[in-house]
Predict the 3D structure of the following.
Amino acid sequence: MSGTLDLFADLPPPPPHAERLGPGTVLLHGYALERAPALIAAVERIIAASPWRQMITPGGQTMAVSMSNCGPLGWISDRRGYRYVPLDPLSGQPWPPLPPLLLRLADEAATAAGFPGFVPDACLINRYAPGTRLSLHQDRDEEDFSQPIVSLSLGLPAVFLLGGASRNDKTVKIPLLHGDVLVWGGPDRLRFHGVQPVKDGNHALTGPCRLNLTLRRARR
Ligand SMILES: O=C(O)CCC(=O)C(=O)O
Ligand SMILES: [Fe+2]
């Protein structure tokens, strides 16, 4: 009995557990855990160039989630609508480039979920303070729905609401933890989804917030 654990002491950890949530939806538990500190450092560098901002919806509401972007294109919202733009409207400069480690993570996670060859051209970075939620929506401002969405969670946990093809379809609650990567594409590409209000807390690496990086192919 006493020797049992020692047998495994030198083995690498098992591959991260992949959970299929739909025909085109896979949750890669803890997939980015080891890379998380480097990814958070990369986010901090991006934010130094393109700071957090709360965007305005076309209807005139201030969004609760603070956002920025990296990559050739960034997602924005203002009175004129939702769209992808190459320049940060705050800085007037191109969005910071996609860090290589983020491109690698996107490709590896998409491949692990059954979508090889994913090359994102946009990464929306969301910052949720405690109490912040994201209401049910589809990601449909992209030109090419054949490409999946790769969504990385860092910091405080959250409950992701995964719905169906119609707004009124029932939703399932998916806890998303620090280091989790959720991929949806193919038949699930246009599923409605949202995030419940983030609970109060303090994470060792992000402090009192949750970060989400959503990698997408916006243009063909
Ligand atoms: O924060 C999340 O987990 C999801 C974010 C999202 O759905 C979006 O940015 O479109
Ligand atoms: Fe979304």
Helices lie at 36-49, 100-112. The longest helix spans residues 36-49. The chain has one domain: 16-216.
